[in-house]
Amino acid sequence: MTNRTTLLTLLATCLTLWSCDDNPKPKEGCGNGLLDLGEQCDGAALQGATCASLGYYNTVGILACRADCTYDVSDCGARCGDSTVDVGDGEQCDGQNLFGNSCQSLGYGSGVLACGDDCTYDTSGCTGTCGNGIMETGESCDDGNASNMDGCSSSCDVEVGWECDLDSPSLCTTTCGDSIRAGDEACDGNDLGGESCESLGYPGGTLGCSIECTFNESQCTMDRLSPNIGMLKNVPAGTFQRDATATNLSTVSAFRMSQYEITRAQWTAVTGWADPSNTGYSSGTEDPVQQVSWYDAIAFCNKLSLLEGLTPVYAVSGVDFSTLTYAQIPAADDAAWNAATANWAADGYRLPTEMEWMWAAMGADLAAPGVTNTTGHAKSFAGSTGTNAIGDYAVFGYETSEFGRTTTQRTNPVGSKLANELGLYDISGNVWEWAWDWYGGPLPAGTVTDYRGPSTGTVRVVRGGNWNASSSNCTVAYRPTLIPQYRNYVFGFRVVRP
């Protein structure tokens, strides 16, 4: 052996001895505190895992390692995937454990229910049922019923004019302002649902819709429009003092009165008869008809009712008003016509009662609605305020020298002067107006309701004055009388109806 070989052998031996460790090396396997292949953990070596990272619900629980080097999760609580439905932790199902439910029990029609990875039901295999209150694929709403016209249709589509949320069940509300009437909306924009002032019980006017989709009835009117005699103004119900005695009160139900006295043109158009007026005391066919008796006036009322398809008010024994001619109306006192009866429940035209005429002439209660009118009976003319001039409101006084009198020896066209508070023209002046009532002397004392006068008599009441008479005849309280067959160029009439 050479010296070189000996030296290398000694060096290798020294290096071997220097590298040796006195500590014993751990054996491989569970329990050595080291993570070996196939182990979840080993002692305190948990691979950084926690209860939370492993998906357990108790996120503050302590994860440990078992002797077999698997996780000890006994302090971690429950988790999705353990085949136990932990309802308290929000699970609906777990794996194959569907908690006893199926597509059908959840309200679907059919199909196979599954459990999703998040332990909630997977209903993708279920066939939906519209109306079960559950929003399902293909549905834009589901309000829990199969009805239409409630926002969500029977096919689970949102209906026009509605909005529905995506809750289960869906809550649907109308969209006020989209001009589509839906749900509990009475109207929307110009869509009034076919309603009108008339269908709501008003005689006329224009129905509107508010921004809250409710009817705006402010432009509806209680007035009625006749195709033959024009406007009839509403006269509200109320109570008034009829003379200077405070306890003499009259209560009157509501009615409507023709805005103008009946004209010559209207007389011929309605009856088909010749105009009876003395044309020497009239300016034209738009003047009030005159030379009219009480008998003539009630005949006109029934003719007008029949023309408009209404129930006639008056009945006279032996008289058929549908075929009645002018020549058949008595020109002398007649027992049958004096015994005429009135059907007060009929919807046709009639003469006003004396109390109705007086109530309308004083302007009813427009100055203080609902309050007894205690001063109207003292008005010097219809429309009087105490300071205005009678000549602005009444055609009167041709044979007088009174201020404001008419200077022409005739009637004026109806409406040539100002109207009273109710919009009624010529209530005072132009021609006398027949009332229904027989005259029975002074009116009864105390309170009367819808007073219609005595049941019999010899003369009927007229009201309002005329173009030829003095202003004293134009007062609200003045009540002259005439025999019912009397015809004269200062006598005409106006009509009322419900």
List the helices and strands and how they pair.
Blueprint: H1 3-18, E1 64-65, E2 71-72, E3 110-111, E4 114-115, E5 121-122, E6 126-127, E7 162-164, E8 172-174, E9 204-205, E10 208-209, E11 215-216, E12 220-221, E13 224-226, E14 230-235, E15 238-241, E16 249-252, E17 255-258, H2 264-271, H3 294-307, E18 314-315, H4 335-338, E19 341-342, H5 354-361, E20 432-438, E21 448-449, E22 460-463, E23 481-482, E24 491-492, E25 496-497
Parallel strand pairs: 16-21, 20-24
Antiparallel strand pairs: 1-2, 3-6, 4-5, 7-8, 9-12, 10-11, 13-14, 14-17, 15-16, 17-25, 18-19, 20-22, 22-23
How would you characterize the overall build of this protein?
This protein has 498 residues and is α+β, with helices and mostly antiparallel strands. It has three domains: 32-77, no CATH class; 175-220, no CATH class; 222-498, Alpha-Beta Complex (paralog of FGE (formylglycine-generating enzyme)), CATH 3.90.1580.10. Helices cover 10% and strands 14% of the residues. It contains five helices and 25 strands. It has a four-stranded antiparallel beta sheet with strand order 13-14-17-25. Strands 23-22-20-24 form a four-stranded mixed beta sheet. A three-stranded mixed beta sheet has the order 15-16-21, with helices on one face. A hairpin with a 5-residue loop joins strand 4 (114-115) and strand 5 (121-122). The radius of gyration is 50 Å and the shape is rod-shaped. The protein starts with a helix and ends with a strand.
